[in-house]
C-alpha cells in the first residue's frame, strides 16, 4: 500500500517540487491550498497533464479549526497520513521600526502556529500505527536571523524548537520529526525581494553564488521521509549553498 503524504502549501514553489518528488517515488500525495487561492483547478489540471494525480484540500493552516477539519476530511476520504510536510509559509518583511502587530501576528500564525495546528491531528495516529515522518520547513533565517525579518526569523526558529521537543516525545514510537532549513531558493518568496537587495545584500552572502532549486530541497524531504532516514530525528538540516554553517 502506498504511503500517504500530506504537503501543506503544495501549490507554492517549494511545495510543488516536494509533491512531484514524493509522487514520483510512489507516495499518494495530498496537498492543501489557502481558501483564497483562485488557481487550484488550473494547478490540478497542469499537474494532471504532467501525469500526477494530486488531491487538494482547502485549509488555512494559521487557523486551528480549519486545520482540524482539513485533516479529518483527508483521513476520511483518503486514509491516515504517514508523512506530514509542514511547508506552507509567508513573509511580511519590514524593519522592526515599521513592524506592526498585524504583520507580526500573520507570520507567527502562518509559520509557527500552523505547525501545531497541522501536527496535532496527525501525530497521535502515527504513534498508534508505529510509523510516521514529520518534516518541518524552517529557514536559514531562523538559524541566523535576517535584516527585516524579526517576525519570520522568530517563527522559523520556533519551528525547530517544536521539532526537537516533539522528536523526544515520539522517538520510541517509530515517528521521526525533523527540520529542514533552506537558504534562498528561487521561488516567488525570493523573487519578490527587490532585485537591488537580492543582488547587493543576499547573493554576495552565498558562497555558491546562486539561489537553490526547489528540487534540491525536495530531494532532502524525500530522504527524510524514507525508511533509510529512520535514525534521523530532531535534526535541523541546512541546505543553503554554504550561506550559514552551524
Ligand atoms: N543588510 C544590511 N542592511 C540592509 C539590508 C541587509 N540585508 N537590507 C537593507 N538594508 C539597509 C539599506 O541599505 C538601507 O540602509 P540606509 O538607510 O543606510 O541606506 C536601510 O537598510 C533601509 O533599506 P530599504 O530602503 O530597503 O528599507 P525598506 O524599509 O524599504 O525595506 C526591507 C527594508 C523590507 C528589509 C528590504 O530591504 C527587504 O525586503 N530586504 C530583504 C529581506 C529578506 O532578505 N527577506 C528574505 C525573503 S525570502 C525568505 O525569507 C526565504 C528564506 O527563508 C530564506
Ligand atoms: P511560496 O511559493 O510563496 O509558497 C507558499 C505556500 O504557502 C503557498 O502554496 C501558499 O498557498 C501557502 N500558504 C501561505 N499561507 C497559507 C495559509 N494561511 N494557509 C494555507 N497555505 C498557506 O513560497 P515557497 O518559497 O514555496 O515557501 C515554502 C516554505 O519554504 C515556506 O514555509 C517558506 O518559509 C520556506 N522557505 C522558503 C525559502 C525560499 O527561499 N523560497 C527558504 C527557506 C524556507 P496558496 O498559494 O494556496 O496561498
Summarize the structure in words.
With 246 residues, the protein is α/β, with parallel strands linked by helices. The protein has a single domain, classed as NAD(P)-binding Rossmann-like Domain (Rossmann fold), CATH 3.40.50. The protein is 47% helix and 15% strand. It contains 9 helices and 7 strands. It has helices at residues 13-24, 40-49, 64-77, 101-129, 140-144, 150-170, 188-191, 195-202, 214-225; strands spanning 4-7, 28-33, 55-58, 83-86, 132-137, 175-182, 236-239. Strands 3-2-1-4-5-6-7 form a 7-stranded parallel sheet, with helices on both faces. Helix 3 packs parallel to helix 4 and helix 4 (101-129) runs parallel beside helix 6 (150-170). It is globular. Bound molecules: acetoacetyl-coenzyme A and NADP nicotinamide-adenine-dinucleotide phosphate.
Q: What would you call the quaternary organization?
A: single chain
Beta-strand level of the residues, as a percent range? 5-15%
User: What letter string, H or E per element, gives the SSE order?
Assistant: EHEHEHEHEHHEHHHE
Molecules bound to protein? acetoacetyl-coenzyme A, NADP nicotinamide-adenine-dinucleotide phosphate
Named CATH topology: Rossmann fold
Widest beta sheet: strand line-up? 3-2-1-4-5-6-7
> Going by CATH, what is the homologous superfamily?
NAD(P)-binding Rossmann-like Domain
How many domain units? 1
Shape: globular
Q: Ends: how far apart? A: 39 Å
User: Structural class of the secondary structure composition?
Assistant: alpha/beta
Number of helices: 9
CATH architecture: 3-Layer(aba) Sandwich
Unreliable segments of 5+ consecutive residues: none
Could you give a short account of the major beta sheet?
A: 7 strands, parallel
Helical fraction? 40-55%
What's the CATH class label? Alpha Beta
What is the number of E strands? Answer: 7
Amino acid at each position: 500500500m502506498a504511503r500517504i503524504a500530506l504537503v501543506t502549501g503544495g501549490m507554492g514553489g517549494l511545495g510543488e517540487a516536494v509533491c512531484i518528488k514524493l509522487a514520483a517515488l510512489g507516495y499518494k500525495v495530498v496537498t492543501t491550498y489557502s481558501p483564497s487561492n483562485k488557481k487550484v483547478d488550473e494547478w490540478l489540471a497542469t499537474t494532471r497533464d504532467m501525469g500526477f494525480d494530486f488531491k487538494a484540500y482547502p485549509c488555512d493552516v494559521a487557523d486551528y479549526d480549519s486545520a482540524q477539519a482539513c485533516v479529518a476530511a483527508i483521513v476520511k476520504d483518503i486514509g491516515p497520513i504517514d508523512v506530514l510536510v509542514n511547508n506552507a509559509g509567508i513573509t511580511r518583511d519590514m524593519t522592526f521600526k515599521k513592524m506592526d502587530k498585524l504583520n507580526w501576528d500573520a507570520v507567527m500564525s502562518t509559520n509557527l502556529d500552523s505547525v501545531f495546528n497541522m501536527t496535532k491531528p496527525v501525530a497521535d495516529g502515527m504513534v498508534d500505527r508505529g510509523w510516521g515522518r514529520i518534516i518541518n520547513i524552517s529557514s536559514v533565517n531562523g538559524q541566523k536571523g535576517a535584516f527585516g525579518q524579526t517576525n519570520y526569523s522568530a517563527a522559523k526558529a520556533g519551528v525547530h524548537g517544536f521539532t526537537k521537543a516533539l522528536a523526544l516525545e515520539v522517538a520510541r514510537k517509530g515517528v521521526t520529526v525533523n527540520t529542514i532549513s533552506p537558504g534562498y531558493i528561487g521561488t516567488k518568496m525570493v523573487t519578490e525581494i527587490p532585485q537591488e537587495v537580492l543582488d547587493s545584500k543576499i547573493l554576495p552572502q552565498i558562497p555558491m553564488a546562486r539561489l537553490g532549486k526547489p528540487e534540491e530541497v525536495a530531494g532532502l524531504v524525500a530522504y527524510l521521509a524514507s525508511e533509510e532516514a529512520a535514525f534521523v530525528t530532531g535534526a535541523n538540516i541546512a541546505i543553503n549553498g554554504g550561506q550559514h554553517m552551524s
